[in-house]
Amino acid sequence: MNADAPVVRLTDVGKRYGNILALSGVNLAVRQGEVTCILGDNGAGKSTLIKIIAGLHPHDEGSYAVDGKEVRFGSPREALDVGISTVYQDLALVPLMPVWRNFFLGSELTTGVWPVRRLDVARMRRVADEELRTMGIELPDIDAPVGNLSGGQMQVVAIARAIHFGARVLILDEPTAALGVKQSGVVLKYIAAARDAGLGVIFITHNPQHAFLVGNHFAVLHLGRMDLDARREELTLADLTRHMAGGAELAELETELREIAAPEIGVVSERANT
Amino acid sequence: MTDTIEAAPPPRLDERVGRKSALARLFARPEAGALAGAIIIYVFFFAVAPPFRNASSFTSVLYVSSTYGLMAVPVSLLMIGGEFDLSAGVAVITSSLTASMFDYQLGTNVWVGVGVALLVSLGIGAFNGWLLVRTGLPSFLVTLGTFLILQGINLAVTKLVTGNVATDDISDMAGFSSAHAVFAADIDIAGTNVNVTVFWWIGFVALGTWILLRTKVGNWIFAVGGKQDSARAVGVPVRRSKIGLFMTVGFCAWFMGMHELFHFNTVQSGEGVGNELLYIVAAVVGGCLLTGGYGSVVGGAIGALIFGVVTQGVVYAGWNPDWFKAFVGVMLLLATLVNMWVRVQANRR
Prior knowledge:
The complex is a heterodimer of chains A (274) and B (349).
Chain A: E1 8-17, E2 20-30, E3 35-40, H1 46-54, E4 61-66, E5 69-70, H2 76-81, E6 84-87, H3 99-104, E7 110-111, E8 118-119, H4 121-134, H5 151-164, E9 169-173, H6 181-196, E10 200-205, H7 208-214, E11 217-222, E12 225-231, H8 237-244, H9 248-273
Parallel strand pairs in A: 3-10, 3-11, 6-9, 9-10
Antiparallel strand pairs in A: 1-2, 1-4, 4-5, 7-8, 11-12
Chain B: H1 22-28, H2 32-48, H3 55-80, H4 88-106, H5 110-135, H6 139-162, H7 176-183, E1 186-189, E2 192-195, H8 196-214, H9 216-226, H10 228-233, H11 238-264, H12 275-285, H13 297-316, H14 323-348
Antiparallel strand pairs in B: 1-2
Helix pairs in contact in B: 1-14, 2-13, 2-14, 3-8, 3-9, 3-11, 3-12, 3-13, 4-5, 4-6, 4-11, 5-6, 5-11, 7-11, 8-9, 9-11, 12-13, 12-14, 13-14
């Protein structure tokens, strides 16, 4: 495997929104054939980090290199052109459009010369159907509006689309966040499939169980900084969960809660008496 | 049905999602409700108004429908793309006035004015689109603004230039007859006169349908109306699509404006107000979703056909034509409810 050289490497990357420091000193290496999990609580900077990698926002500090070459993307299209594809939380699918139209949206196949250049509907439908089947997804109707599919199926359609259009690095923004147990399992299976197909997967989640099921490499963000950066061999699910839950902070909170419990109630009951 | 659950060994398709019957698919189409409505209304007037049964009545129904329908084509496309254009009605008159006054005042061949009017109309569309994508304001506000601006300009400039509320007759000017032949000729078909706009209308509907369903641009129109942010994220040129849609409205407003000019020879500067709503109603009655992302050009055409049938039906039945608007209002509500009901039923099946 040529997975040793990272495809995406971030060195000391930081980002400010006005006077708010959203991200600072983040180091990350994403290799092909691996799942890199990025975990963190709400507001930890996960979204900012993927927006930088996906080309939605440029970084302010540090360096961002793809295949060892420093880059600075002006738009998601530029990131897409070097093979970095993002499946957003809201999927970037259009619910009222049929599956095959969604699959090729923005990269439609056409046939014929200009005045009569038209969609190659037959080929688009066939390819979409084939690609979905290869990923083990059988949909009852390729003409059904995407909005009729289940949450898990939509995620998988979006992932299949990214892979079909030559993604080398796949960024998945909380793909299991809104899903039930079984649907999450379906999505995790495709994450593993994408990894085994040689893609570098960046899996953003706040569920350590899901991350540990498929991840090779874990990064935990906390208040815009890296709290943990470890390979799978170096930690257990319990470690990961503890880091994710805030680690030391959680222990502190625990004692704090225990200490304040008695006097607080005392105050309330005193007030109730007066 | 549920017996097959055990029979499928591999993780196959979800057995709860059944295939839809051909009939359910037909009724799930956006224009199905409108088509049913059009047939019912046609049969109704056919029964109550004997003069309605003549061939010439039918061609006049088609003519009136085409005058709404030519504008319902771009307005439907625009609505599928998620926007309205309230300036579409007066923009038609702006176009006629421009051509008419340019020709008369400068004494040019009428085709020169026709060309200038085309540029003005495309410019108005581009301005609407540009303002929309630039400011991010809802199209309701942007085009309400241009509607009022154009309405004022139409009246003020016409009075300023001609000293009158109408333009001068241009029917004796060079190029008039050829322009009349293109935009307003009567064509004799089996003894009845059919206005050329009917054929243009059919052509525009066919072209619009082809673009919407069979080209990249059509895919983009559905996408920008359905979910703009998703469309942008996968690389659809959202701004260009929206500006293009408004310019299409501009183009058709020019075409309609030229018809009005060469049909009546003069233009009343206060006309056109209120028509923008009829175009929108035609699109909605035809099954276009007011919020965008769903609908068809054929639906808008059927909506326009319903207007044509009602306008002429009321006349042939000998009723007071004042009832027309009330009828349109009832149609709008009924059609919207029927469409909603049909879609829910079709998706449930």
